[in-house]
Design brief:
It is a single chain. This protein is α/β, with parallel strands linked by helices and 187 residues long. It has a single domain, classed as Vaccinia Virus protein VP39 (Rossmann fold). Helices cover 29% and strands 30% of the residues. The protein contains six helices and nine strands. Strands 3-2-1-4-5-9-8 form a seven-stranded mixed β-sheet. It has a two-stranded antiparallel ribbon with strand order 6-7. Helix 5 links the parallel strand 4 and strand 5. The radius of gyration is 15 Å and the shape is globular.
């Protein structure tokens, strides 16, 4: 059982993440993705960003945690949510955009490269991605979870294999410039 599948640790995560959301990221996304577009959110967790995205887009939430999916479905029975692994993305569905907020940092470099290649395949023509990461170098571990910190160059090097970068910027989540987001269009 994974960290986010265990009810106790998933609830701890929900408490820790209280007050944080991707509203700033989603505002940047509006400049590149028109209202009404279809978006797949990877790693929706408790659904905080999913709720914000749903205000402007047609959104599918996904997670590998059945706990998060079940909790969200209980509160939002008509929501479009699917069990999906962010690396392999085993689905035939297609979206205009793939979005994640601090999810892909759990993937090592090869896994991230695989995920981005797969994302390219499930995007519509002219589709785009938006992902955020912790900014830095090295790997941190917390309660068995890996966090791969990334620099702007790290992100540029892997993203540009499949996508054209539209925006690559730092922002503040907990400390000044502790985070990076990338918005990129399918080549």
């Amino acid at each position: 059982m994974g960290f986010y599948d265990d009810e106790k640790t998933a609830r701890q995560y929900i408490e820790m993440a209280e007050g944080y959301d991707g509203a700033e990221l989603i505002q940047a996304l509006h400049a590149h993705v028109p209202k009404g577009a279809t978006i797949l959110e990877l790693g929706m967790g408790p659904g905080t960003d999913l709720n914000i995205l749903n205000q402007s887009y047609t959104v599918t939430g996904s997670d590998t945690s059945q706990f998060f999916l079940d909790e969200y479905a209980t509160k939002h029975p008509k929501a479009d949510i699917i069990h999906l692994d962010a690396q392999h993305l085993d689905t035939d569905r297609v979206w205009d955009c793939v979005y994640s907020n601090k999810v892909l940092h759990h993937l090592d470099d090869a896994e991230l490269e695989n995920s981005l290649a797969r994302q390219c395949k499930i995007l519509a023509e002219n589709g785009c991605i938006m992902h955020s990461f912790w900014r830095g170098s090295g790997v941190d571990e917390h309660q068995g979870l890996r966090f791969h910190n990334r620099t702007e160059d790290d992100i540029r090097n892997v993203v540009e294999k499949e996508f054209n970068i539209l925006e690559l910027a730092t922002y503040n989540e907990m400390e000044p410039d502790d985070s990076i987001y990338v918005i990129a269009s399918k080549k």
